[in-house]
Amino acid sequence: MAVETTLVLVKPDGVRRGLCGEIVVRFERRGYDLRGARLLKVSKALAREHYGEHRGKSFYGELVDFITSGTVLALAVRGEGAIAGVRALMGATHPADSAPGTIRGDFATLLSENVVHGSDSTASARRELRLFFPDGLL
User: Fold this and answer.
1) pTM of the model
2) Domains delineated in the chain
3) Catalytic residue numbers?
């Protein structure tokens, strides 16, 4: 399995609820390394670029509005098979479909506020990491 670096965002609901530490611990306990961490307020322009693949879909505006509604913790997480592994730790996008023990299964209650985002492919990880860590990673 390849060593990969992927983007994780602890969304505004997760930051507001004080879940950042718990989320980071879950990745570290699984053996992943943190290569970067950054607290930021996502601008509308960054949000539109980040969610560009959803432009034109009915929920696009809601995605942009929510990610810009508060502080976000951006993480660069690295390890063997990190993209799939991180997504498995996060759980299904819809909290109702997320198993207990996953981040969303334990903490998310609404599809629109599901605590975390994770890159879904190598190409997405590359693109998203450049957006949230424009100065590069260690």
Assistant:
1) 0.94
2) 3-132 (3.30.70.141)
3) 117
